[in-house]
Amino acid sequence: MADITIPKGLSGREIIYDNLYNKGTAFTNEERIALKIDGLLPPVVNTIEEQEARVMENYYQKSTDIEKYIFLMGLLDYNLTLFNRVLVNHLEEMMPIIYTPTVGQACREYSHIYRRPQGVFLAAHEKGRYVELLRQWPSKDVRVIVVTDGERILGLGDLGTSGMGIPVGKLCLYAAGAGIHFRHCLPVMIDVGTNNAEFINDPHYIGLKQERIRGEAYDEIIEEFVMAVQAVFPRALIQFEDFGNQNAFRLLENYRNRVCTFNDDIQGTACVSLAGLSAAMRFSNRKLQDQTFLFLGAGEAGTGIGELIVSALVKTGMSPASAHQRCWFVDSKGLVVQSREGLAAHKKPFAHDHAPVPDFLSAIEALKPTAIIGVSGQAGKFDKDVLQTMTAINEQPIIFALSNPTSKAECTARDAYTWTEGRCLFSSGSPFDPVTIDGKTFTPGQGNNAYVFPGIGLGVIASQASRVTEGMFLAAAETLAGQVSQADYDIGRLYPSLNTIRPISLHIAVAVAELAFEEGLARVEKPEDMMAFVKSQMFEPQYPNYV
């Protein structure tokens, strides 16, 4: 990954308006003269620290989260290095702005707040030209692509092309969390239409105003995209993001052994969830193989977590059949059981021999789980009765309310701690403020995928792995769990501070890269010092010298 240099022939104005090269008022006097931009800038020369202070002053003047989001996206469009520095230095504070929950509102309003393109749009009617369209992206060295078709954005449903805010946000976290330079990142929106009537009737909607393409025609579009990436960016990792259930599992199975890819909603969510559960086991002196897990929601996130738990249990020596028996699921029709007809393929491994149970509370009473995991997108489903029942059958119940955004969480942190008498081990998908119960303050940890996917991506990029394997997610989960301290646990947090994501990502990347070499998937020579090698791949948000 070479240093940034300005291509010959760019005019001064082009340099200043290119967010990759622009330094704003931080261009030195020598650079201004050499690049012929001295007349285009005010005479002051600022340090990046002074620019950051000015950015934060403006940031704090914004009265709403969506205004802060728009402001940060404007900075991203203007100056990549400064944006990355601000995000790195204020990551815990800005994570809820740049990603969940504010990114959900930003996606809903995307067509109305749209400013300029931040990625590649591949529309259905452009099929046959995807190689050409990808080549229009200015960077020729893309290493990670986050792609969506906008069908299942967070817990908000079908947002069509407005879902582009998700790949942009994820790649911001790749840059801030793992030091992967923006020039190696590409957000992609595959626009196959939307079934959101509100958007179709919105005169400002910027996507295709047609019903979603399904079936063979849809699969042909995805196939052309994946093969176009192999032709244009052959070293790129493809991260599938926020695809609908009917497509997500099928696409993962179709491509996971053909190209370098993973699905963050299925595998990333599973990885960070397993890490939280592993940390809970370590500090409460329990074993994963002794737990019974009951899930509310049997979609891609839930069954993805279940499958990774099974892999972790098998690693302890348990048989696959016994491991599956530790995971139970409740969906819209009640407990997923063997006798039910018409089960989707991803649910069948978790359909056990049990009498039908109509609802979640009844399933808790019947199965007596030690942990409940919410991935339903249904706010408030972990109500007082559910939480008190879990407390009655467990000394220290595990409560994971993982649905995003915050408005979709199965319970709040306050509800969890209040109705379990402060005894639960709690994690959520969205951030919650600290809660004080009977004089003790709990600072709940957020089971955010940002703990793992940047590090996994960095490890894949550093080793140039040809595939992303299940073992890599297990290694990442184990590594993340090992970063949780006693001090974290003592305040109720099963994850480290979000401000430590960069060093966490480095450790995860090393574990992933080591495994890539062990599994024969790496396409570079193995370095003697893996930590130093991976660290050398991480971009630090400092300006280059152009003269």
Notes on the protein architecture:
- The protein has 547 residues and is of the alpha/beta class.
- The protein folds into 2 domains: 47-259, Rossmann fold (3-Layer(aba) Sandwich), CATH 3.40.50; 267-449, Rossmann fold.
- 44% of the residues lie in helices and 10% in strands.
- It contains 24 helices and 14 strands.
- The strands form 3 sheets. It has a 7-stranded mixed sheet, sandwiched between helices. It has a 5-stranded parallel sheet with strand order 1-3-2-4-5, with helices on both faces.
- Helix 4 (65-78) crosses helix 5, helix 10 (165-178) crosses helix 20 and helix 14 (264-283) packs across helix 15.
- It is globular.
- Assign the CATH architecture of the largest domain: 3-Layer(aba) Sandwich
Strand order of the largest sheet: 8-7-6-9-10-11-14
| CA gyration radius, whole angstroms | 23 Å
Which structural class matches the secondary elements?
A: alpha/beta
Distance between the termini: 20 Å
Could you say what the CATH topology of the largest domain is called? Rossmann fold
Q: What is the top-level CATH class of the largest domain? A: Alpha Beta
Total helices: the number is 24
- How many E-type strands? 14
| Overall tally of structural domains | 2
Proportion of residues in β-strands: 5-15%
Shape: globular
Task: Provide mean pLDDT, rounded.
Answer: 96
Largest sheet: number of strands, sense, barrel closure: 7 strands, mixed
Helix percent reads: 40-55%
CATH superfamily of the largest domain: Malic enzyme, N-terminal domain
- Spans of at least 5 consecutive residues with low confidence: none
